[in-house]
Amino acid sequence: MTWRFDRPWLAVIALLLPIATAALFWFANRRRLARLARLGGAVALARLAPESAVRSPVGRSVRLALAAFLGALALAGPRWGAGSAVVRSEGVDVVLAMDASLSMLSDDERPTRLEHLKREVRLFRAAAPGDRVALLAFAGKSYILSPLTNDDGAIDLFLDNLDPTVVGQAGSAMTPTIVQATDLLRAARGSGGRAIVILTDGEAFDDHDAALAAARKAKDGEIAVVTVGFGTEAGGTITQYDGTQAVLKRDEEGKVVVTRYDPAFLRDIAAAGGGEFIPATVSDRGLRVHQALARLDAKQREIREGETRPLQLTWFLLPMVLLLLFDAWNADGGRATRLRRWLRLAAPALLLTLAAAPPVRAQGDPMDAFRAKRYLDAARAWRQKIAEGDQRPLTLYNYGTAMLAADSVGAALEALERAASAPDAAVRQRALFNLGLAHLRRAKHGDPADAGREAKAAAGAYRTLLLQRSDDADARWNYELSLRLMPPPQSGGGGANDDDRRQQQQQAMSKQQAEQLLAAAQRDEKETQARRQRGTRQERPPGGKDW
Questions:
Q1: Sign of torsion over alpha carbons 339, 344, 347, 348
Q2: 0.70 exceeded by the pTM?
Q3: Highest mean pLDDT, choosing among 129-133, 191-195, 271-275, 280-284
Q4: Residue partners of 445: CB distance under 8 A and separation at least 6
């Protein structure tokens, strides 16, 4: 059984406390005996003082020293065994509708309005980590970038790649954005507060009355609409790049476009949506958004983490309480009547403490079979749970891990791939690790013709994991191993150079090379995400205004 302490330094102090307690009792007893000796000799003390006054308090010092030891161990946070942790957080569901039109490239807010928008979104996330956030990008149309999530890594990835090429139609349209955000929040069916936060310069070319009607409809559905302004009313030009050359955006008549911040329209939308308007002149708009949403009802959520060692306090606090109760009774004279009175008083506390003891695991628990290395029995038990309708990612992960331990890689891959998309970060990361391990086993021991494809799949799983948890040394090592198992690119020539190259690939990589590999993986992931977001070429909006 493996022990772990939340505060190991307190465990060290727990070892010293009994010695310190015994020393204090010895010192106090010496002083007490010295004071009694002033009253007279042993015969006089036998008449003047009770027998307990001259008795050495060895028993009491042992009891209190042991109680102090147990209490300090409980404060150290001892953990062993297995269980699952539940993290509770409170927050509201928020759709951040971000303006990605060309007008957001204006530099009247330096460096650009869009960069200020990204900064305020990150500031809001830092102030409200418990809120679930969905991301929308809009211009002439609106697009869902991310569903409701607490994953800051995914949110940062979308923010990094947010620019006007993300949306498929240029221009500025507010109505479809509000409608799509409202539908997204209604589909979530959360019982807590819901809000749409529109971050834009307010320059919209669609029907303003339709946008106000959409905001009122959101309000009727108990969804608040908050608007956040960017830009200046004096306006600014839009800088674009033709290759490496900077050019100013022009309209169809050849005139330089000047885009202007429209606070009146944003104020009207916020009023129609029952929310708050945050003007562009405010410096800390992200914090103001958090304050505006604080009025909404927060929903308490329970997020079940993966398997972990539970906190074991009962085994220390219960004997500590019993020792203290016994010491209090013994110090009060030791009468049998007092013992019965103390037991009557202690019985409710004792029952409550026992009720807090960790439950006994039922016989046939698949986790017990897994720990006993009966992997097939554990896999059958988890498979039965899945067949009965338990489709939780944690169950799929456990089943896939048991099948992988039983060398049934094919069945493990299917379950682990499904668990790798879990919303719970701990389950998702563990599933990604074992998914990469399953592909690595196939690459090393499977069909040689498929080794390159399996190694590439393993590298993809570990790359995704490292982007979420870059300090995982095991994942980093397996990622490097999968890269070495991938076939080298085809090139002309051969002979001694190929042999040298193969020998170099078998050598252990330095820490600097590993960091370079991880940086390259992060760049690849961002480029892939950017290509997905920019998948369609922008269309010109009806009416000709494409900013």
A1: negative
A2: no
A3: 271-275
A4: none
Could you give the percent of the chain with pLDDT greater than 90? 18
Using pLDDT thresholds of 50, 70 and 90, give the confidence band for residue 359: very low
Three-state DSSP state, 183: helix
Instruction: For residue 521, tell me if it sits in a domain.
Output: no
Torsion angle of the four alpha carbons 325, 328, 332, 335, in this order, in degrees rounded to the nearest 10: 20
For residues 155 and 146, is the Cβ–Cβ distance under 8 A? yes
Residue 540 tokens read as 């010109």
Q: What kind and span of H or E run contains 526?
A: helix 511-533
Mean pLDDT of 279-300: 82
Domain containing 346 equals 4-80+313-355
Q: 212 and 269 in contact (C-beta within 8 Å)?
A: yes
Lowest-confidence segment of 116-130, 361-375, 412-426 by average pLDDT: 361-375
pLDDT at 358: 41
Q: Which two tokens stand for residue 122?
A: 């990150």
Same domain, yes or no: 74 and 109 = no
Asked if 230 and 199 touch (Cβ cutoff 8 Å), the reply is: yes
Q: How many CB atoms lie within 10 A of CB 202?
A: 27
Amino acid identity, residue 282?
Answer: V
For residue 419, the domain's CATH number is 1.25.40.10
Higher pLDDT, 376 or 174: 174
pLDDT digits (tens, 9 = 90+) for 495-511: 434 444 443 443 334 44
* Of 142, 147, 160, 151, nearest in space to 98 by CA: 142
Please provide the size of the chain in residues.
Answer: 547
Average pLDDT over residues 62-70: 88
Residues 455 and 408 in one domain: yes
Count structural domains, the chain. 3
Nearest CA among 426, 432, 148 for reference residue 304 = 426
Task: Name the 3-class secondary structure at 280.
Answer: coil
In a domain, 68, yes or no: yes
Q: Cis omega (within 30 of 0) on the bond before 111?
A: yes
Three-state helix/strand/coil letters over 358-425? CCCCCCCCHHHHHHCCCHHHHHHHHHHHHHCCCCCHHHHHHHHHHHHHCCCHHHHHHHHHHHCCCCCH
CB 410 within 8 A of CB 442: no
pLDDT at 416 over 90: no
The mean pLDDT value of the chain amounts to: 77
